[in-house]
Specification:
17 helices, 5-stranded parallel sheet, single chain, alpha/beta, 14% strand, 453 residues
């Protein structure tokens, strides 16, 4: 006769096996009842390579019957009891959150597999490092633009953990100035290959030390920078363009005003846990909203306007026509475009700067109403701040997560955007060095037409 301890052990084992087998069995039963193909059989339809097995695993996770019912509640329980922030977010100190794939890039820059979010890691040619692959794509694009008489300036944006490693781990406290991102090696290689770039890593460390982290350069519960961080970056890029003597010949004075914004971070939403946003309060930040007092107010694309431009039609063939083009990702989109209302709202009054060129009408009141409709607040992001710092019109193409390849693809199918451009400023988040949504593909531009520069 079996002892009670032995029986308990067997019951626990059987219960564990029932749970393990019950989930796929329930999934198969639900699929058969719905008349859908049994997803678990997909594993036999492709060669059992690591990539195919990983794709199969992600497909099972996405198609699980409890994905939208049980999983959020379980994640909510884990967050409340264990502080588990899920697959995308990583808890830091003082309620700071970090983007887990971005941190993984810093500690495993050569990891040759897909991340949890399904992004494609760069696959370099045999015998080359992943950085070599990225450098080759950047050099190729530089040469394609040079054939059109256009200069390229590369601007990798540091991830939050690269500038604030001490807010991720107490072990970095007091030594954050010594932290070195693998992207800085990319910048060194670009310099050896004659590609002009901006080292925002050094700029941000200097700015953080000078400002004593007040205001911070990054939002505490978001993957992106604060308006202060965006302005530091815009000023650094403007300074680099002046050093290279790549500025337009006709300086222009923009107007502006301060807008206070209450913004909720994007990382709590990635946790997929009901109520997660309540754990991480919205932050109030001040933005500088840049205005063009003579030609239409906010520096954002007009309805139905050509992609890559904010200019009204009457600006064409005038000294204000933009000769600079920004290619960027969500770091260029934040504060520049309207965003979901769930992310925040304009908070409090705005203050305008006096401008001798502003016509005596009710434009400020109309623009204030537009700012509230646009949210977060519009024309206060990196492209507008750069235009303000340069005193020059700046066109831009923004693709969230697509700065590695998608923005170049848009140029390849619409090369007219490059007409009369003298400089392309290529901004991308540093994690895209290894985590680009589509990798770093070779995107050929059409042959340059004969044009006078």
């Amino acid at each position: 006769m079996k002892s009670p301890a032995r029986r308990s052990q067997m019951l626990l084992t059987l219960g564990f096996l029932a749970v393990i087998a019950g989930v796929p069995a329930a999934q198969i039963a639900i699929e058969l009842r719905r008349g859908e193909p049994v997803q678990s059989t997909d594993v036999f339809r492709c060669p059992p390579t690591a990539e195919n097995l990983r794709r199969f695993e992600h497909a099972l996770e996405d198609g699980w019957w409890g994905q939208e019912t049980l999983r959020p509640r379980m994640q909510q329980f884990l967050l409340a009891t264990l502080g588990d922030t899920g697959a995308k977010a990583l808890a830091g100190r003082e309620d700071w959150l970090f983007y887990r794939p971005g941190v993984r890039y810093l500690v495993e820059p050569n990891r040759a597999e897909r991340d949890d979010g399904g992004s494609i890691w760069v696959q370099p040619p045999s015998g080359e490092t992943r950085r070599d692959s990225v450098v080759a794509a950047i050099v190729r694009f530089r040469d394609q633009l040079a054939q059109r008489g256009i200069q390229l300036l590369v601007v990798p944006i540091p991830g939050k953990a690269s500038v604030y490693p001490d807010m991720l781990s107490r072990r970095a406290e007091g030594t954050w100035r010594d932290f070195r991102s693998p992207t800085e090696e990319l910048l060194e290689e670009l310099e050896r290959r004659g590609v002009n770039a901006v080292d925002l890593f050094a700029v941000f460390r200097e700015a953080r030390q000078a400002a004593a982290s007040d205001p911070a350069l990054y939002l505490a519960s978001d993957t992106h920078w604060t308006p202060a961080g965006a302005k530091v970056a815009a000023d650094a890029v403007a300074q680099r363009l002046r050093q290279l003597d790549w500025l337009p010949e006709h300086p222009y004075k923009y107007a502006g005003r301060t807008v206070r914004v209450r913004r909720s971070g994007d990382l709590p939403g990635m946790m997929q846990a009901p109520g997660a946003r309540e754990w991480f309060p919205a932050e109030i930040v001040e933005c500088r909203q840049v205005l063009d007092p003579l030609h239409g107010g906010l520096l954002v694309p007009a309805a139905g306007g050509r992609e890559g431009t904010y200019m009204n039609e009457h600006l064409v063939d005038t000294p204000m026509e933009a000769s600079l083009l920004v290619l960027g990702d969500s770091f260029s989109r934040i504060y520049q475009f309207a965003e979901p209302a769930s992310l925040g709202e304009v908070d409090g009054p705005t203050t305008s700067e006096p401008s001798q060129s502003e016509p005596p009408d009710d434009r400020p009141s109309r623009e204030a109403a537009t700012a509230k409709r646009r949210l977060l607040p519009g024309s206060a992001g990196f492209p507008s701040l750069l235009a303000d710092a340069l005193g020059a019109a700046v066109d831009y193409i923004v693709s969230d997560g697509g700065a590695a390849t998608d923005v170049r693809r848009r140029l390849s199918v619409n090369p007219a955007i490059l007409e009369r451009k003298r400089v392309v400023i290529w901004e991308f988040a540093e994690r895209d060095v290894a985590l680009g949504k589509e990798g770093w593909r070779d995107v050929p531009l059409p042959s340059a037409p004969n044009q006078s520069m």
